[in-house]
Amino acid sequence: MAAAAAVVAESLAGYRARAARAVLEQVVLPGEELLLPEQEDGEGPGGTGERPLRLNAGARSRGRVVCGPGLRRCGDRLLVTKCGRLRHKEPGSGSGGGVYWVDSQQKRYVPVKGDHVIGIVTAKSGDIFKVDVGGSEPASLSYLAFEGATKRNRPNVQVGDLIYGQFVVANKDMEPEMVCIDSCGRACGMGVIGQDGLLFKVTLGLIRRLLAPDCEILQEVGKLYPLEIVFGMNGRIWVKAKTIQQTLILANILEACEHMTADQRKQIFSRLAES
Amino acid sequence: MAGLELLSDQGYRVDGRRAGELRKIQARMGVFAQADGSAYIEQGNTKALAVVYGPHEIRGSRARALPDRALVNCQYSSATFSTGERKRRPHGDRKSCEMGLQLRQTFEAAVLTQLHPRSQIDIYVQVLQADGGTYAACVNAATLAVLDAGIPMRDFVCACSAGFVDGTALADLSHVEEAAGGPQLALALLPSSGQIALLEMDARLHEDHLEQVLEAAAHAARDVHTLLDRVVRQHVQEASILLGD
């Protein structure tokens, strides 16, 4: 009863702004405001909030804090706009206060510059291909953006082909543009994805999990059958194994990984390895 | 039913609740696999299901695309078996359009549409069982569905209905209380800032009583927020356990 009354009292008062450092790895919801470490110092046990005078003004600032997906700057605080866990990454070297972001689960992809994605060619118009990447607009891909492509030597891309490429332009105001070469002109595994195989869709959170550096799911899958696999950050996975049955088994496992705990997964893998 | 008293002398309503008490709320997120976001809510006997798709390309005419914001498209539909008598409601009828418009106004206030210009966000709400407070249940279900879809929002939107009987403001009206004919008000609130997203009333209420009824509705909406908060936290924790965090 007392707990319920306390909860109601807090909800009536509205969310008080909390320090971002205190909420790391916890669930945050839209409407909450977070204080960055700089503002926290100012509101510390100083009472009136005075900051001590320092001779070296530059030393006080901790550098810029980058606010990533799920957070918006509102005044001098961060407003949470998605539900998920708050994460923080320390800056690798020197300046900057690190990155804060909200790790949220989503199925719909929003194009981000630099992401590698799998797209489906939907139209060829003049010099560019229109590629569906699962966002709110089809991306455009120039025919010269392939390795070794020149005006005379056009790449062999048909409508319905799968393309693995990365975004060079992706913001909310412009149509996204993708290319299949890196800045040096090499393909690096990008381009048209070969024949056969199966393309299926999973959530974005699972893709990020599978692409993490030490992912056990991927190591276990690799031991099961020899396979080729391509992960797109837009939630699409293309997989190809020796037979159709093996391909389907792999696709089902990867889709089900989202809803299984680690133990259930190990059971399934051991059962498949026996048979 | 002449002589049905909505508020007894001891302060109990027809279903045994107190004046400011809400009905039991149960909600679940992520009930549909195909949609980008979905949620189901039960407020007492009122059951609503909300499904969200987006942000995706504008369907239909390109001319409707807004250059600086996303278009929010809401559709409300009420199942034929949702009321006491089975009633077939054609898709574009007046009540559905009006509810769709109200839902759209509510969510344009909360969703950060500037982040997705020239795209469209679809919110489809279906009422499976209507026992009063259908607008409130639709808004609460749609909020959870939009959160499930990962569309950035300024804040939750929590809604509740309120009425006025015998000098007392009642919160979260059931169908019996709505049908009795007294004034009723629907309020949608952004709880953290206390801002009102939508306030709707089409009955006559003396202005002296307005503040009391509004306060009752706002208090009830904040209680709804507490409950939805708990539902979302539990959902996120379950999802992250499965992903092995």
From TrEMBL, chain A:
Ranges for region Disordered: 35-55
Protein's GO biological process: CUT catabolic process; DNA deamination; exonucleolytic trimming to generate mature 3'-end of 5.8S rRNA from tricistronic rRNA transcript (SSU-rRNA, 5.8S rRNA, LSU-rRNA); isotype switching; mRNA catabolic process; nuclear polyadenylation-dependent rRNA catabolic process; poly(A)-dependent snoRNA 3'-end processing; positive regulation of isotype switching
Keyword tags: Acetylation, Cytoplasm, Exosome, Isopeptide bond, Nucleus, RNA-binding, rRNA processing, Ubl conjugation
Chief subcellular location: cytoplasm
Domain K Homology: 197-244
Transmembrane segments: none
GO molecular function, one term: RNA binding
GO cellular component, one term: nucleolus
Sequence ranges assigned to domain Exosome complex component RRP40 N-terminal in this UniProt record: 26-105
Subcellular location: Cytoplasm; Nucleus, Nucleolus
Pfam family, one: RRP40_N_mamm
InterPro entries (alphabetical): Exosome_RNA_bind1/RRP40/RRP4 (IPR026699), KH_dom_type_1 (IPR004088), KH_dom_type_1_sf (IPR036612), NA-bd_OB-fold (IPR012340), RRP40_KH-I (IPR049469), RRP40_N (IPR048541), Rrp40_S1 (IPR037319)
Subunit architecture: Component of the RNA exosome core complex (Exo-9), composed of EXOSC1, EXOSC2, EXOSC3, EXOSC4, EXOSC5, EXOSC6, EXOSC7, EXOSC8 and EXOSC9; within the complex interacts with EXOSC5 and EXOSC9. The catalytically inactive RNA exosome core complex (Exo-9) associates with the catalytic subunit EXOSC10/RRP6. Exo-9 may associate with DIS3 to form the nucleolar exosome complex, or DIS3L to form the cytoplasmic exosome complex. Exo-9 is formed by a hexameric base ring consisting of the heterodimers EXOSC4-EXOSC9, EXOSC5-EXOSC8 and EXOSC6-EXOSC7, and a cap ring consisting of EXOSC1, EXOSC2 and EXOSC3.
Family according to the record: Belongs to the RRP40 family.
Protein name: Exosome complex component RRP40
Automatic annotation (TrEMBL), chain B:
GO CC field: cytoplasmic exosome (RNase complex); cytosol; euchromatin; nuclear exosome (RNase complex); nucleolus; nucleoplasm
InterPro entries: ExoRNase_PH_dom1 (IPR001247), ExoRNase_PH_dom2 (IPR015847), ExoRNase_PH_dom2_sf (IPR036345), PNPase/RNase_PH_dom_sf (IPR027408), Ribosomal_Su5_D2-typ_SF (IPR020568), RNase_PH (IPR050080)
A GO molecular function held by the record: mRNA 3'-UTR AU-rich region binding
A UniProt-annotated Pfam family: RNase_PH_C
Family, as annotated: Belongs to the RNase PH family.
Oligomer and partners: Component of the RNA exosome core complex (Exo-9), composed of EXOSC1, EXOSC2, EXOSC3, EXOSC4, EXOSC5, EXOSC6, EXOSC7, EXOSC8 and EXOSC9; within the complex interacts with EXOSC2, EXOSC7 and EXOSC9. The catalytically inactive RNA exosome core complex (Exo-9) associates with the catalytic subunit EXOSC10/RRP6. Exo-9 may associate with DIS3 to form the nucleolar exosome complex, or DIS3L to form the cytoplasmic exosome complex.
Protein name per the record: Exosome complex component RRP41
Species the sequence originates in: Balaenoptera musculus
Lineage: Eukaryota, Metazoa, Chordata, Craniata, Vertebrata
